[in-house]
Amino acid sequence: MLPDGGYALVWLAVFLALGALSVPVAGTIFPRLDDRGAGLAIPVALTTIGVVGYWVGRLAFGLPALGLALLVLAGGSITAIRRDVVVDWRRYAEVATVFTAAFVFLVGVRAIDPSVVAIGGEKYLDYGLLNSLSRTETIPPEDPWFAGERVRYYYGGHLVAALLGQLTATPPAYTYNLALAGTYATLVSAVYGLAGAVAGDRGLSHVRAGLLAAFLVGIASNLATPVRVLAWLLPGGHSLADAFGIPLTRNGVETVAVGREAFSYWDASRVIPGTINEFPLFAFLNGDLHAHMLSLPFLLLAVGVLYEYWLTPVGQRWRRRLLAFVAMPILAGWLAVVNTWDFPTVLGLTWLTLALAPATPWSVLPRRMNDAIERRLERGSPALPLSAELVRPAVAGGLVGGVALAGVLFVLPFFTGAASTGGRTIALVADRSDPIRFLLVHGAFLLVACWYLASRVDPGPETIRDSTIALTTLLVALLWFHDALSFLFVVPVVAVGWYVIRRGRGGYETLLFVAGAGLVATVEVLYLSEQAGPGRLNTVFKTYVHVWVFWSLAAGVALASILEGRSWPAAAQAADERGRVRTGSISTTTATGNADTDCGSRSGSSEVSTESAVDTTAGADTATSTSRTATVLVLVLLAGLSLYGGLALADHVDGQDTHSLSLDVREEIRATAPDEAAAFDWLADREGQPRIVEAPTPPRHTYGSSDASGAPPPSRAVSGASTFSGLPTLAGWTHSADYHGEEPYWERVGHAETVFEGSDEERGAVLAQYDVRYVYVGPNERAWYELADLDGDPTLEVAAEFGEVRIYEVGARN
């Protein structure tokens, strides 16, 4: 077995090698991106491993599926090289450098506190899934907390982690933290690459934009911590905060607003009551290997494919069809397996891209249908351009319906199996976000979005300005009346961003601002009602992470533009013109269905020629002063957003033994419950996946928490035998009721009680019904049940004993 650092080096080398192997494939998929797709090479590799592993794994999971996935990648690269596909190895070297820095950073973070614990997240769920997938021979895997039934949960990210563990010969106890570090590094490096590609296409520094975006997605926090720090440090800060209604406590508990010693990394993720407001640094610091985190690299790949569609010339109809109706259904379907919450998000982003791309959405239809729509629009009144604007989203919506159907069909076994649990309905939000708390969560990105969009708005004639003021006043009044002022911060971003794009004054970064704002507005109105969380808690939790990724990409490009002093009417317009001519994404031919896309470009060109003639010293001085001011403001913003990271990392290290670093998730359980840890290891060494019975975790001790009296469970290792071994138990955490139904779960809880308290005959019937091989008796079982005389049962024999822990084997005496 390798030392912990050895495993880390192997994983780093494998990730970078997989990326290098995929660079030619990425160059084939993304020929129009400024970096030829180098920034998305690692997500391409992971997606190939996941998709091939998912389908081949239905027959033979593990090394056969992994081997075929690598052959597919190698074959794709060889084909690309033979076709002389252009690749950018220099840009991949940049991405690899960013990946390495991010990977080493998170490995260091996890090495300080590597343990999987029940409290403070869903690490037990994640580790149980990983363990089960590491042992299974075919998929879908058996549910480790519901023996005999397949997993009814999205598990695609854990599938990839398990395959990487097999590729690197890494035990699951180490795979967990290394997969976490690899996911974080892939997220940060892919954001660096994709933001750099968008910036490069806009004529901006790809390094500056990439680093800014990488910082925002990997290090930055929301505004809760910097605002509370100001309240702590400024004289009269508390009074000022109270005057503006800024919350300085969480659930009545003091936060960093009273001093450094009161800081908790948890506070910034629970700002809006009844919701979870996670951001990536919190999530990876907390250490759950959860689906909403594992899906992010694949979500970025979907963004990249849609951006490639955006850049593809109008005349390349078949290529745009392949991107929209082949690549996107595959990615959408795969994302549903990884984290089903990503499925509607990707469909929404696809709809926005089709609706707002330079090529009209109907240009991908058969030529006869495209020409018919064009003729219908030409017969419309020129005074009513709104009709054409309404056709775009309507047609795009119909096309996205086809993408959704194809995505479902691509992973149909998942939708008819793991995703088939009922009890979910769409509901209206009753308690919307408080505006102040809303701004603490989203204010930094909204500030950048408004700053950026303001430089791109063409105010138009005085009549339009007057109408805009009147409509804005009416909107504010309506939102105030309906207690929905938070809409005031996102609806204008959607409206102005849409307008800017359609006027030819915004690129894909603007669309990402619109997408994030649209998601935030949606979850202020609707949520998915389900058992997994009260009210809209889970909907906001899973959606806000998508918003953070979209806005990090957009804000990285926007801040680079601001720092480079690119005002839209002059330099930025010229850069956009150069970029569009290079990609061939603008056409002036009515027959292609895109005559409406270049009106802004032509008007912009005249503005360029006019303003370029005005080149005075005073103008240059003003531009320099403005640039300096912008630089100071951006630095202040970035410094504020980094405060959480500094405090959280210091808190993470404080009190830990940094001389004894490890990546083994069993560290805590081995230190606090060595007998149980030894028993878990013994079970993990069994061949195959024999079924076990241990005490189901009662609701009062879910997440290892205390009961109503404040008493903790006898052992924090609730459902620990199944979680740490990967062997399926009769019934595990009460979370199983969310996935398999309340009635079946509680029926199994009753059967577990029969095993521990019933007669020999009753016990034998249950053990035979579920084909149980081992009965686990540890501290929880002894505390929660009046144990029958298991030693006297003729069908049971003690197979292993570790202190107070006994493991009985069923049928051993026969």
UniProtKB/TrEMBL annotation:
It comes from the Archaea. Residues 584-595 have a biased composition (Polar residues). Keywords: Membrane, Transmembrane, Transmembrane helix. Residues 579-622, 684-721 are annotated as: Disordered. It holds the Pfam family DUF2298. The chain crosses the membrane at residues 6-30, 37-56, 62-81, 93-112, 174-199, 211-234, 289-310, 322-341, 394-415, 436-454, 474-499, 511-529, 544-563, 632-650. Residues 600-622 have a biased composition (Low complexity). NCBIfam families: Chlor_Arch_YYY. PANTHER family: TETRATRICOPEPTIDE REPEAT PROTEIN (PTHR10790:SF51), TPR-DOMAIN CONTAINING PROTEIN (PTHR10790). This is DUF2298 domain-containing protein. It comes from Natronoglomus mannanivorans.
